[in-house]
Amino acid sequence: ETGVTQTPRHLVMGMTNKKSLKCEQHLGHNAMYWYKQSAKKPLELMFVYSLEERVENNSVPSRFSPECPNSSHLFLHLHTLQPEDSALYLCASSQETPYGGERNEQFFGPGTRLTVL
Amino acid sequence: QQPVQSPQAVILREGEDAVINCSSSKALYSVHWYRQKHGEAPVFLMILLKGGEQKGHDKISASFNEKKQQSSLYLTASQLSYSGTYFCGTEIVGSNYGQNFVFGPGTRLSVLP
Questions:
Q1: pLDDT digit string, tens, across residues B17-51
Q2: Residue B84: C-alpha distances to residues A33, A37, B9, B81 (Å)
Q3: CA B98, A30, A45, B55: dihedral to nearest 10 degrees?
Q4: What Cα–Cα distance (Å) separates residue A3 from each residue in A106, A111, B59, B64?
Q5: Is B86 on the interface with A (CB under 8 A)?
Q6: Considering only CB atoms, which chain A residues are within 8 Å of B30?
Q7: What is the number of CB-based contacts under 8 A between chain A and chain B?
Q8: Cα–Cα dist B10/B108, whole Å
Q9: What pLDDT is attached to residue B99?
Q10: Main-chain dihedrals φ then ψ at residue A9, nearest 5 degrees
Q11: Which of B110, B108, B65 minimizes the C-alpha distance to B90?
């Protein structure tokens, strides 16, 4: 595998289900991101992990819970979602300079198309 | 704090030129450009940094006016492969690292034969 991979590619779940999205990067990067992309809104940054520590939570509802066990893996745990959460969820990674500095290019995975019934 | 992109959509014939603009109401560290083809992930094109440095593909041309908080992406002699949605991402001065990167709504570009 190369680049950034995401599983599953498609997911249909009910509002009471619990599921998880997985992202893996094979680029040796130290930062990983979750984005939400829906028809109504542009790419929305949800969470950022840099050096395995969360540095961003953009007022995302608590029904979304990220987990970053190491620099190569990122999860998004989902529970009691709403139909408006249906969207494409994209994972990205980048190599960032510790202690700040400008952001570098992000490499995106193919996304998970989530449908909440 | 989301940047504004213009135009929202543009249709070109092969070989024609286009300019896509991105502007912010906030002071910017950098502007990033990505292209997303239908059904695919966004792909990095270029980063323009405060101070004039650029990182990206040699075939892509762009400018960054720091004083006006504006950036423009220049697509010359367009090819069919240029079709897609172009997003600018802006890194805002004064916000912490985790909260300062915001994408624009995108510009949909269609290149026709």
A1: 999 999 999 888 899 999 999 889 999 999 998 88
A2: 22, 15, 10, 8
A3: 90
A4: 11, 13, 22, 29
A5: no
A6: 102-103
A7: 59
A8: 6
A9: 60
A10: -80, -30
A11: B65
